[in-house]
Design a protein that fits this description.
The protein has 497 residues and is mostly helical. The protein is 72% helix and 0% strand. GO terms for molecular function: transmembrane transporter activity.
Length: 497
Amino acid sequence: MTTSEHSHEKATLENIEGGDSDHGKAGGSNGPISADDFGFSPEEQKRIKRQVDRRLVLTVGAMYCVSLMDRTNLGAANIAGMRDDLVLIGNRYSIISLVFFVTYIVFQPPSTIIVRKVGPRIHLAAITTLWGGVMIGMGFVNTWEQMTGMRVLLGFLEAGFFPSCVYLLSTWYTRYEVGKRNSVFYLVGCVASAFAGILAFGIMQMAGIAGLNGWRWIFIIEGIITCVLGVIGYWLLVDFPDARRKNWAFLGVREREWICARVDADRGDSKPQKFSAAKYFRAGADWKVWAYAMIFFNTTTVSYALAYFMPIILQYNMGFDVGAAQCLVAPPYAFAGIVMWFTGWAGDKYRLRGPIIIFNALLTIIGLPIMGFHSSSAVRYFGVFLVTAGANANVPAAMSYQANNIRGQWKRAFCSATFVSFGGIGGIAGSLVFRDQDTPHYRPGLYACIATTLLTMVIVGVLSLDFKRLNGKADRNEKQLECDADDTYEPGFRYTY
C-alpha cells in the first residue's frame, strides 16, 4: 500500500468511527464521497462484489437452507411414522403445523432492531444453534401435545432469522443488484426443499437404531446439522457494511466505504441512524408497506401449503408409495430453482419487479387446476411443477419488489419485519388449506391458493399504477415522492414497477 493510499484509508477509518454526522464524508469536510472517488477499477469492483456474494449470500443461504428444512420437515416425518406414533387424528397435524407461526409472527418485529444492536453474526448464529437443539429434542417427544410445545419454541427462535437476513441483504446491494442475490439466497433454500425428502427417506432407514422410529431420526440428524451450521455461521457471517465493529470486517475500510457510497448514491439511506420508535412505527402510515406484506402473505400461503402437504398429496391424491412420495418432492423444487434464477436475473437486467411477480403468478394459476382436476396422476404431477415454481420463485421476487421501493434505514427495518410477519401468517393459512376431511382431492385448498394468487396480481396492478403516478409527478417537479421514515428526500429516487 502506498503512503497516499494509507493516508486515505486512515482518514476513512477515522471518518467511520467519528460519529453518524460525519459518516460518508471524506476528511469530515469535503462533502459526500462518491463511489467513483475510490479509484477502484471495474475488475476490482467485481472482485469486491464477488467477495460479498461468497461471504454473505452463500452463508445466509446455507443457514436458510436448514431453517426451511427444519420448519417444513413435518410432512416427511408424518408419512414416516409420526402420524401413528403421536396419534395425529383429526386436526392435530394442522395444529402442530400452524402453532409454529404464532410465535414466529409475534417475535419478528423486534428482530430487525436486535440485529442492528448486536450484529448479524451473534444474533443469527445464536438463534440457529438454539433452534437446532430444539429440533434434536423433537426427536424424543412422546405425545402430540409435546410436539406442539416444541413447535411453539421453534417458531420463537426462528422468528428473528428471515427478517434479519432480508434486512441485511438489502443494506449491501443497490436496488438492481438485489434481485439475483435474493434469488440465490432463496434458491439455496429451494435446494434444501428439493433434497429434504430424499434426505428424510435416507434417514428414516435408521428406524430401530437405539430403539427409535425413523421419523425421530429425521429430527435428530437434521437438528445436529443445524447446530453445526450455526456454529460455523458465527465465523462466516458478515456485519452491516457501515458497522464500526472493525474486528468483524472481512473487507478493508475503503472497500466497505465504497459499498456504502454506492448504496447511498442509489437510494440515499446507507448512513446508520439512531433508533427512534416514532420513526420506526411511522413507516406503518404508508399503505404500500402493507401492500407488499399482503403480496408476501399470498405467496407464502401457497408455498407453505406445498411444503407441508406435498408428500401427503403425492401419497394420498396421486397414489405413490412412501418412498416415491418422499423422493418425488425433489424434481419440482429443482425446476423452481431454475425459474427463480432466471426471473431474478431478468428482473435485475431489465429493472422489472411487478411483471416478474405477475409471470410467476400465472405459472401458479395455470398449475393449480392441472394439479387438482386432471384425471391422470402423471399430468397432475406436472401441475405440481408449475405451482411449485411459480409460488417459490415469487418469494425472492416479492422480496426484491419491496426492497426496491422502500427508503430509509428504519422504514426498511419496519417493512422487513411486517413483510416477513405477513409471510408467517401465510404459513398459518398454508397449514390449514389442505384438510384431512378434503382427502383425496383437497379442492377447498386449491380454491384458496387460486384466490390468493389472483389477489397478488390485482395488488401488483394497483401498485404499478400508483408508482407511475408518483414517478410522473416527481419527473414534472409537481410533488416530491413520499419522504422516508427519517423525513429525508432523495430527488433521484423513483419507484420500480
